[in-house]
Design brief:
The complex is a heterodimer of chains A (334) and B (531). Chain A is mainly α. Chain A has 13 helices and no strands. The chains are: A mainly alpha (334), B alpha+beta (531).
């Protein structure tokens, strides 16, 4: 097990270097630079342009810039935003809890609904139930997030007025962030109604962000279940006269869950990508919206630092999934 | 004792509830996050709304709703005979904000004013580079380092600015966001505490609202400055709820989650008008969208050819196709909300037949030209590609063949400056300080040829008028000069003036006293809200 763990961790190093190169190169490949964009129609004279380039370190050759960047990162310095002039790591840490909170809620919803839906579809294979679950999953999977979010806002917040339009909590509540997780902070604040308000603000964004992972999990569960249900040991269990619920729940589902867990782990990347749009629609102050704004402003330090931090999170989650997987399935360890 | 405690607690709670009930809160759904809270470091309106407009004051202020200036932190000022010295007399008794992170020990004085400019001007000032990459973009962009010879403290309440050359727009510059007055006492304290960068995170000013808290990308909270020199505001709390998506802003406004929400989608205007709980204010933006010919290249060096092409453009078709109701046809190079706008100038009538005849008269046949379309959306041109297509069609009707070209934005701005540029370029301008010089000299002056003067047009008569207007300080005289310059411009037609945008401002009917700013700022001075 230790060897397995070390190999997995060892693999992270080249991946991390690869991501850092991509992150560094990607934003520089986009036409336009932050100085030109800042100046706009007003323009900036060549002498001053050169001066500003130098002050940001952009006058050095790219490989040197990259090495300097790598050096800084190894000392824990992710740079300073060109736009806000605040350290990238500080901004990330301020905004990241909001994204985690939303992503966690979404993945919980997707798992709690997706797995039973997939099991149900597999067990009732070929019936109208199977077809409607899979049909809905396909629609959910293909739905453009932006449009879907807006649709829900117009219906539930606009017409029915059941949920708030956007934000994390009603503006009447005001307390300093302690953990950055609004559900926890609202409880800690002791203000009555704050938790309820935070929860109601989470409903729509959670549904929107959970939609795609939910569809993927349901489909994956269904196919894994179908495969397992055809296995000999399931037939044996049935032949032994075990009640169907026990066959499906204990013998089949447990084995079917292995690929499903991998899928759930992979959804973390999907969630963070989906967060970009979901956060923009719901004015959710997380890292997705932060990254989008920074790309538009060509804020090199934020884009490269932010990408690296996000990639780091995804890599760690995948590592944990791999390890979990090893725990569940002893064959993988060897 | 227990009883007394609970009694006290109940009373405190009741008092608190009563004060919450009475506190007037206005929620503004702002369109983006501020980059920081030190306006001199930035150039975007979103940042100015959250800092300079509501937290800070300047020596002179714009009279909101106009492009004229009025006294601000300076009660009065004097200009020397030669136009080189501006002496500002400061208003006594102006209080800085008292917040939970700073308690001022004194009122505003000359040291604050000098510090506010010195930090931008002088590289040796300890606040010149107080955040990484501080570049004082507007201060430099308005050529202040060349213009300012020095700033002197005459006495505690008097400051003298000495210029290198006479410059009438200097007063308008002093009303700009970068000229906001910050507290030297606060800056000194931050520096002593080793927290200099807080000047850009936790602002302390003299303005109508004081900063309370900022949750990045979510909410900014302000409260009324109780000792504001012009009197405490009617609203007690001002909250910016950051909402980047225009459709979501509209939904929030309709759901009552905010009271004022800027920049609606043009497609949503009808729904907003139809809503009984809302009011929709509108005003021309301080901008102009234009098509600049290259006056250095034949046949566009001939004013009659340019004029004929202008007559071939159907502006109404452009307004319908590109602006969808959020634009107004432009006849002058400056917008109608700007002082000295010449109402008497007549626009070139749309007349393709006459245009064709005029081109033939000048011996121009089988003309092929390029029209440059910007790759980005700007207030003065929401869709340059579409605009170029309409122009292409219009020009084809007079026998001129148009090829549309485009480049990446940075490259576009750069390449379009070239004196030998091939083709006419679509571009525009948004005013900085409400002074006509900021349009006419920057965009059409001889110094701008090969740079911001995309028409590469240098006309002696026009140049003499705008140069004179730059040095005389009498406003009536300046107005007359600029009005005449606009007549010369129209006759010589270096541009086809296309449109000024119309800015819409939807808000709840509960809101009163809001005044739209032609310079594009969002101010909450004098605003009230009905319970």
């Amino acid at each position: 097990m230790l060897r397995f763990f070390l190999t997995r961790v060892g693999l992270l190093i080249p991946t991390f270097i690869g991501v850092s190169i991509v992150a560094f190169a990607f934003i520089r490949l986009l036409p336009g630079d932050p100085i030109m964009l800042l100046a706009g129609e007003r323009g900036v004279d060549p002498a001053r342009y050169a001066e500003l380039q130098a002050s940001l370190g952009f006058d050095k050759p790219l490989p040197i810039q990259y090495i300097n960047y790598l050096k800084d990162i190894l000392t824990g310095d992710f740079g300073t935003s060109i736009v806000t002039k605040r350290p990238v790591l500080d901004e990330f840490m301020t905004l990241f809890p909001a994204t985690i909170e939303l992503a966690l809620c979404a993945i919980i919803l997707a798992t709690l609904v997706g797995i039973p839906a997939g099991v149900l579809a597999a067990v009732k294979r070929g019936t109208w139930l199977d077809q409607s679950v899979m049909g809905t999953a396909l629609v959910g999977y293909s739905m453009p997030i932006f449009w879907w979010g807006l649709l829900l806002i117009i219906l539930f917040s606009g017409i029915l007025q059941w949920t708030p339009v956007s934000g994390r909590i009603s503006l009447i509540y005001f307390f300093p962030p302690v953990t950055g997780f609004m559900l926890i902070d609202s409880l800690l604040s002791g203000q009555s109604g704050a938790f309820r308000s935070a929860l109601s603000h989470l409903i729509l964004p959670t549904i929107v962000l959970a939609t795609i992972p939910l569809a993927v999990i349901a489909r994956q569960t269904r196919s894994a279940m179908l495969e397992v249900l055809g296995e000999d040991y399931v037939r044996t269990a049935r032949a032994k006269g075990l009640p169907p619920r026990r066959v499906i729940g204990l013998h089949a589902l447990r084995n079917a869950l292995i690929p499903v867990i991998t899928t759930i782990g992979l959804q973390v990347g999907v969630l963070l990508a989906g967060a970009i749009l979901t956060e923009t629609i719901f004015s959710w102050p997380g890292i997705g919206k932060w990254m989008v704004d920074s790309v538009f402003k060509r804020d090199y330090s934020v884009v490269q630092g932010g990408l690296l931090l996000i990639a780091g999170v995804i890599m760690i989650v995948n590592l944990v999934v791999d390890l979990l997987y090893g725990l569940i399935n002893p064959r993988i360890r060897h | 004792m227990k009883k007394l405690n609970s009694l006290l607690a109940t009373t405190a709670l009741a008092a608190m509830l009563a004060s919450t009930a009475q506190a007037k809160t206005l929620v503004y759904c702002s369109e983006g996050s501020p980059e920081g809270f030190d306006p001199a470091l930035y150039t975007s309106g979103t940042t100015f709304d959250a800092s300079s407009k509501n937290v800070y004051n300047r020596l002179v202020e714009f009279n909101i709703g106009t492009t004229e200036t009025k006294p601000g932190l300076a009660e009065s000022y004097e200009v020397s005979e030669d136009g080189l010295e501006y002496t500002f007399k400061l208003r006594p008794g102006v209080k800085f904000h008292t917040t939970d992170f700073f308690t001022p020990s004194r009122d505003l004085n000359a040291d604050d004013v000098i510090f506010s400019f010195e930090r931008q001007l002088n590289e040796d000032n300890s606040f010149n580079k107080y955040v990484e990459g501080a570049s004082w973009e507007y201060f430099n962009g308005m050529s202040m380092p060349d213009l300012l010879k020095g700033i002197e403290k005459v006495d505690d309440m008097t400051v003298k600015f000495v210029l290198n050359r006479p410059e009438a727009p200097f007063i308008a510059n002093m009303a700009m966001d970068f000229a906001s007055i910050v507290s030297k006492e606060y800056a000194d304290k931050l520096e002593a505490d080793g927290k200099a960068s807080d000047l850009n995170q936790k602002p302390v000013g003299t303005g109508p609202f004081q900063f309370v808290a900022y949750q990045p990308d979510a909410v900014i909270r302000f409260k009324a400055h109780p000792d504001y020199w012009a009197g405490k505001e009617k609203i007690d709390d001002l909250v910016f709820a950051i909402t980047t998506d225009a459709s979501v802003r509209q939904q929030k406004l309709m759901a009552g989650e905010c009271h004022v929400a800027p920049y609606p989608n043009p497609a949503d205007l009808d729904a907003l008008r139809a809503n009984d709980d809302l009011q929709l204010m509108e005003q021309e933006g301080l901008n102009v969208g234009y098509l600049a010919y290259n006056a250095l290249v034949a046949p566009f060096d001939n004013a009659k050819v340019r004029k004929a092409l202008n007559m071939a453009i159907n502006k109404q078709a452009i307004l319908d196709a590109v602006f969808q109701g959020s634009g107004q046809a432009a006849k002058n190079p400056i917008p109608p909300t700007m002082w000295s706008y010449n109402k008497a100038v007549e626009d070139d009538a749309y007349d393709p037949e006459a245009a064709k005849a005029m081109l033939a008269e000048e011996g121009v046949t089988d003309l092929s030209m390029k029209v440059w379309a910007m790759p980005v959306q700007r207030p003065y041109n929401p869709n340059a590609r579409r605009m170029a297509e309409v122009i292409q069609e219009d020009f084809s009707k007079v026998g001129v063949n148009v090829e549309i070209v485009s480049y990446e934005w940075g490259e576009y701005l750069d390449k379009s400056k070239a004196k030998d540029r091939d083709g006419a370029v679509l571009l525009g301008w948004t005013g900085d300080n409400g002074d006509p010089d900021n349009f006419l000299a920057v965009l059409l002056g001889c110094d701008g040829v090969g740079g911001s003067n995309r028409a590469q047009w240098c006309n002696d008569e026009f140049e003499a008028l705008i140069q004179k207007a730059k040095v005389v300080s009498d406003k009536a005289e300046r107005t007359a000069l600029y009005e005449e310059a606009q007549v010369v411009f129209k006759r010589e037609a270096p541009w086809a003036t296309i449109a000024h945008s119309v800015v819409f401002m939807p808000m709840s009917k509960k809101v009163s006293g809001y005044v739209m700013d032609p310079l594009g700022g969002h101010w909450f001075t004098g605003v009230d809200i009905a319970e």
